TrEMBL record, chain A:
Keywords tagged on the record: Membrane, Transmembrane, Transmembrane helix
Entry coiled-coil feature ranges: none
Name listed for the protein in its UniProt record: ABC-2 family transporter protein
Highest taxon above the source species: Bacteria
InterPro entries found in the cross-reference section: ABC-2_transporter-like
Organism: Myceligenerans salitolerans
TM stretches of this protein: 38-59, 71-90, 128-144, 156-185, 206-233, 245-264
Automatic annotation (TrEMBL), chain B:
A Pfam family reported for this protein in Swiss-Prot or TrEMBL: ABC2_membrane_6
Name of the protein in question: ABC-2 family transporter protein
Species whose genome carries this gene: Myceligenerans salitolerans
UniProt keyword terms in alphabetical order: Membrane, Transmembrane, Transmembrane helix
Segments traversing the membrane: 21-44, 56-76, 121-140, 146-171, 178-197, 230-248
């Protein structure tokens, strides 16, 4: 029975695995280009890091209740979760181009779920460069900051990375669902996909009320890094986002995915075909 | 000269057909503007209301002017000419009785200038209404600012064109573009004002053309830099523009000799 189930599961994922493996091989074929890409994504991560370092160094000790090292913990958590999500789900963001050119029709014809096909249609290995930088920042921040290590801290860290990853992935899927409606107005989704990434690296204490509503709850970016980091550091958090909320990161991730799947379903049903 | 003016006007009109895209961009700019003003204004507040010459009002002006300019300057993407170099369509452009470089830049600048209407002005409006950004009361900063803005926008497209010419020698310029995007984003002062950088990084930034794209126009327009200092910034911008155009011209001529067009 168990063997049969495993066999069926492997049969189910086989086509996805074949596509992904071909994408991985393709990206490794041009080694010089791949190395340049790896370097490029690391540089992008580095400039994001530079922003945090410049801002918090210019501050008089602390900014929004955090010092530079505490801010780097928030940054490391957010950046690692985002970069991993971007690697696996980032290409969902380019769906608008496929909708415009009509190539989405092909996905409708295959006997597999549309979203599963789209997600597994590509993987951006070059983003490993950015993830690697995020890991370095995170490790340094975890070592330098005064974290009370124990099972609680380890569980928090693991939960934060998994839930942060899930929330960022959900944002990409929400954006994908909206692309079916927006077509040329793709930048609407940049507001919460990349704006959300930006927000997740900030201390929530500096947010104006409208941003607290949007990125604290509607798109729960505060749950990706800021709140778990405040729990790890034993800091109180922000007025509307106290640190204890960090334990509810799984609920935030579930909420983000509910929104994402609803947006996706609406988008898929709205699509009328490319007329090909 | 007239032909380039007409290409510029055509670019302006082309962009006017993409209004939903412009408003979508405005929404993204406004979101980022709110995120940036939250942290930057806290920074000024913590510094006792003043930081490196910025007050709450001038910092807000920096945030909303920089967000408003994003539809007009190009610091992220390859210009359409790069796509044509890659596909070989540029060979057709070489046959036309207009300079490839100038025509391409004129088209992009025309589009950029139009974007000031649906993206630039509303962004400044949001800044004035929501966060009370400070704008100068005299006329001169606006006059100088308009010139500085035009120079900055043109420079950004001239630099992007130069980046695209790398395609004459490289098959894939994406790695280069990603690199450019990262460096330019930081050094134009889009992420944080260049003047908040630590000394060594500020020195590096000022030695590149990037602050002339965005930081200088914002300083002149917001009245942060005035008088002869403002004229000096304009001269620096003009100098970088001349350099970028000359380099682009040389790259285009050299590239033309190496251009290989495949197919029949």
């Amino acid at each position: 029975m168990g063997d049969g189930l495993a066999g069926r599961a492997s049969e189910l994922v086989r086509p996805y695995r074949a596509v992904l493996a071909s994408r991985v091989r393709a990206q490794r074929a041009y080694r010089a280009s791949f190395r340049a890409d790896l370097f490029g994504t690391a540089v992008v991560g580095l400039t994001e890091l530079a922003e945090v370092v410049v801002l918090f160094s210019a501050a008089n000790g602390t900014l929004g209740g955090l010092d530079l090292m505490q801010a780097l913990l928030v940054f490391g958590l957010a950046e690692l979760a985002f970069s991993n999500a971007d690697m696996l789900f980032g290409h969902v963001d380019s769906l608008a181009r496929q909708v415009r050119s009509g190539t989405v029709d092909i996905l409708y014809l295959r006997p597999q779920p549309l979203l599963a096909q789209l997600v597994t249609s590509d993987i951006s290995l070059r983003r490993v460069g950015r993830s690697a930088l995020a890991v370095v920042v995170l490790v340094v921040a975890l070592v330098v900051n005064d974290v009370d290590w124990g099972p609680r801290a380890v569980a928090l860290l693991a939960m934060s990375l998994v839930c942060g990853f899930a929330i960022f992935c959900a944002n990409f899927v929400t954006a994908g669902g909206l692309q079916f409606f927006l077509l040329n107005a793709q930048e609407v989704t940049n507001a919460f996909v990349y704006g959300g990434r930006h927000a997740s690296t900030q201390p929530a204490t500096v947010w104006v009320r409208s941003i607290t509503v949007i990125f604290g709850f509607v798109f729960p970016m505060a749950f990706c890094a800021y709140l778990p980091a405040m729990l790890l550091l034993g800091e109180p958090g922000a007025e509307w986002l106290p640190a204890w909320l960090g334990w509810y990161a799984p609920a935030a991730a579930a909420w983000a995915w509910t929104v994402a799947l609803l947006a996706w379903r609406a988008g898929v049903r709205h699509y009328q075909g490319g007329g090909g | 000269m007239r032909v380039y003016a007409r290409i510029l006007a055509a670019g302006f009109r082309t962009q006017s057909r993409y209004l939903p895209a412009a408003f979508a961009g405005l929404l993204a700019n406004a979101t980022f503007g709110l995120l940036k003003s939250g942290i930057l204004l806290t920074l000024v507040d913590d510094g006792g209301g003043e930081l490196d010459g910025y007050t709450a009002g001038t910092m807000a002006a920096y945030v909303w002017l920089s967000q408003g300019l994003l539809g007009s300057v190009n610091i992220w993407s390859l210009p359409s000419s790069a796509e044509r170099i890659k596909s070989g369509d540029i060979a057709v452009d070489f046959l036309r009785p207009a300079d490839v470089q100038l025509a391409s830049i004129a088209d992009d600048v025309g589009r950029g200038l139009f974007a000031l209407i649906p993206r630039g002005l509303p962004s400044v409006g949001v800044g004035v209404l929501l966060v009370g950004m400070a704008m100068p009361a005299q006329v001169l900063p606006y006059a100088l600012g308009a010139v500085s803005l035009a120079l900055g926008i043109t420079l950004s497209h001239a630099l992007a064109y130069l980046l695209g010419t790398a395609g004459f020698w490289l098959v894939e310029v994406r790695g280069l573009q990603v690199l450019y995007m990262g460096v330019a984003g930081l050094l134009t002062g889009l992420i944080t004002p260049v003047w908040l950088f630590p000394g060594w990084l500020e020195a590096i930034a000022v030695a590149t053309p990037f602050p002339a794209v965005m930081m200088y126009p914002i300083d002149v327009l917001s009245g942060r830099t005035t008088g002869t200092d403002a004229l000096w910034l304009l001269a620096v911008q003009a100098g970088w523009l001349a350099l970028a155009l000359a380099a682009g011209q040389v790259a285009t001529r050299l590239g033309r000799r190496t251009l290989e067009v495949q197919g029949g």
